[in-house]
């Protein structure tokens, strides 16, 4: 498959020590050669692959030096895209890296689309679709454990399992086809409903195993949407600041200080939390605060975890008790804050209202109880720990949806076996399962979906 030569800035924009402009394509080395003047006089077309060279980038028309650079030359197919790749390392200023890119584009390269380098790696057969998506997961990872999950997927751990399942189904389909098309062949074992049942049960069991990791995997990838709720002035913003370990939210003794939803990411025992500090939920005449309260109620409905904060030095109010009704049936941890102050809250009533929910007491002012809270969060979703070493986690929403569809298709095949449906009819559900699993790794996927997936990548990746 032949493509034109693309180029893009592969490092974040802004000031830094080094910036990189990457080229990929058949003319990558030729374009770089037009611009590069090495100190030793060597031409890039003549150098060995996977070597780096010091020199200057020169405007071929005027002969003026554009930048002092180090140029890496990597010849295909042993590159990320399986094409010739050149990386121009220059000084990390906005002006310098843009000047380099402009000269590269002026001399024959095209500006890459978002994710086009990874898309070429996929289209050229170096990685499959699930591995390509893992590249973005790796970039967006917010904890070490999330990064380990992405690395495992990039290494092809999920792909190997999916290919193994597809091969199992393919062997069943091939066996059925032989029985149907060549019934006169006595040396071919007949595919019976019993054999089909055994094979389909194996496939269903393996899909279920993958889906069992999906909740944890999705949390590791996307973060746990966590809403901090409570009456005004109970310490919600102090809790956010304590977990983030920065003063992100304004903390005062004035009720209603937080007017909108404040969002922050934080790593709690390897669990990435997307913390949402909400406006205190209460009846108010203040129009701006009322809008904030309505947004808080909406966030509450969409959250994976609720941190319900109460005030140790206040008696329980009707608003507090109403919040327990609002979070009923949700994963909730009740935090009784301000234990450094005299007790006025009825803890027995708090535990009665909390029912099965964990209750943690804290003094955020004196930094007490935060460790117990973090342990409670980790225990609630990961039984206190996360094993990522040997586990194949499914973390991508698209993969999870396709696995659910695959499970439904294989279960319909099993229902057909139990009802004694002719094997050639059951074959339709098996084929559907095979196709759905293929969509995960990109073996059977529409071009429009591929374009949509890679459009989410950053430029230069």
UniProtKB/TrEMBL annotation:
Its cofactor is K(+). One of its GO terms (molecular function) is metal ion binding. Binds 1 potassium ion per subunit. GO terms for cellular component: cytosol. GTP binds at residues 233-238, 252-258, 277-280. Coiled coil: none annotated. It comes from the Bacteria. Residues 223-382 form the TrmE-type G domain. Mg(2+) binds at residues 237, 258. Homodimer. Heterotetramer of two MnmE and two MnmG subunits. Belongs to the TRAFAC class TrmE-Era-EngA-EngB-Septin-like GTPase superfamily. TrmE GTPase family. PANTHER family: TRNA MODIFICATION GTPASE GTPBP3, TRNA MODIFICATION GTPASE GTPBP3, MITOCHONDRIAL. NCBIfam families: mnmE_trmE_thdF, PRK05291.1-3, small_GTP. Exhibits a very high intrinsic GTPase hydrolysis rate. Involved in the addition of a carboxymethylaminomethyl (cmnm) group at the wobble position (U34) of certain tRNAs, forming tRNA-cmnm(5)s(2)U34. This is tRNA modification GTPase MnmE.
